Amino acid sequence: MRPCLLLVDGRPGTFTDHVLSRDDLDLVLLRFEEHLSSLPTGHLLRTADIPTFTIDADADILREAERYLAWVAGLPARPAHFCNPQEPLQEISQRFAGLVGLPHLDAEQVAWVRDKTAMKRRFREIGIPCAEFSEVADGDEVLGFAAAHGWPLILKPVDGWSSIDTYKLNDEHDLARLLPLPPARRWMVEEFLTGREYQLCALVAHGRVLDTYVSWTPCALLETIYGGINGSISLGVDNELGIDEKELVQRIVDGMRIDHGYLHMEFFRSDDGGIHMSEVGARLAGCELPSNHGFARNFDMMAATLDTYLGRVPSLEYSTPRCAGDLLLPYKPGRVVKVTPLETLLSMPGVVHGRMNIAIGDDLPDQRASHASAGYLQIVGPSRQIVEDRMNGVLDAFELVTQDVS
User: Angle 68-72-73 (CA atoms, 0-180°, nearest 5)?
Assistant: First the structure.
């Protein structure tokens, strides 16, 4: 029987493109009215013939689930599988999936992978080291945490993603510039960890970690907000961490009762080899990390990922390992008057794929997010250092000129 998948369609990406290209499954799209504006016209045209259910912005989710069940009963194929590849829609989409009888994360699991204080409490409960942390409501509580744990510290929303509204505070003067904390959001602080930050991905099927994939980040994710090189390198070779990543992730999978899918994590490794887990997400990694892993091991990561959401156990067969990274091209607000052509960048050493998100004449809004970019390139090489050197070569060649339109 052909599988039928309900796929959350909130923002186009490489995984969604892969699913749309498959002719061996039936597909139903789940959209949210308040996010329709983020879907490009070309994507809407490409998916016009696919059955699509759109959740009304102000409607009660229980009534929307009932409406969906009546609607889907009239389709030739009814979804038995569910996938949400994106972080911001995690709570609402997982709850909806549960209401309509599809595999999903329950409310407790969603809290563990979305609410950063619940997440870190769970880390502690299952014996996974993490930074000291505390939820805070005002500046006095931040100062109290600093008195106990010292400066610098990290301030961020409990439900944040992509480093949006995340700040490194070196002292009370940095804090004062952010006060008062907006009461509409929940906030937390955590101690600032030194050492090297890594990203860690995994594929899970039937509660078992099939494999893990480590990525080196030339700069810590938060540093990219301040202009640091924004990229990651999948370590098909050069992984000399000296830890059992698979055992580590299996402890998280068991402790959070994760049955299947793609996990994305970040952790810090101190100079003495100690590991502190930063965060975990039960969805695909952002940017192009998943396809980096495929380029680094010469296998189809997107197909393997889809298999886990279809209840299958993918066959992971690798060949000719190397390192492969994605480099986000620098971004600046304003009207684009000059940008290096993608064709020029694709001709540079090691560049195997790329995409430009902007064009001359575009008006770029001001963004403070780790995913903000003019586009991206994927770059391969026989070692991590060579890939990083090639990334720096691209940055030296890339030019983006904008003018103020305010």
Answer: 120
Count of CB atoms situated within 10 Å of the CB of 183: 9
CB burial of 230-251 (b: ≥16 within 10 Å; e: otherwise) equals bbbbbbbebbebebebeebbbb
- Helix spans in 7-79 (H): 14-21, 41-46, 61-72
* Beta bridge mates, 135: 188
Q: What's the rounded Cα separation, in Å, for the pair 139 and 307?
A: 47
**H or E element at residue 268:** strand 261-269
Crossing angle of helices 301-309 and 14-21, in 10° steps, is 80
> What DSSP character marks residue 36?
G
Query: What H or E segment, with its residue span, contains residue 110?
Result: helix 107-114
Q: What are residue 226's DSSP bridge partners?
A: none
- Measure the CA–CA gap between 3 and 78, rounded to whole angstroms: 9
Question: What pLDDT digit, counting tens, does each position of 250-259 carry?
Answer: 999 999 999 9
Residue showing tokens 């090189």: 229
Which whole-number Å values give the CA distances from 61 to 47, 98, 108, 185, in the listed order? 24, 11, 18, 22
Q: What is the mean pLDDT of residues 6-14?
A: 93
Instruction: Report the distance separating Cα 171 and Cα 142, nearest Å.
Output: 11
- Relative to beta strand 363-364, strand 196-205 is unpaired
Question: For the sheet containing 334-339, what is the strand order?
Answer: 363-364, 334-339, 400-403
In sequence order, what are the residues at sequence separation of 6 or more whose Cβ sits closer than 8 angstroms to the Cβ of residue 70?
A: none
d(CA 118, CA 114): 8
pTM of the model: 0.92
* Farthest-apart Cα atoms in the chain, separation: 62
Tokens standing for 60?
């009660």
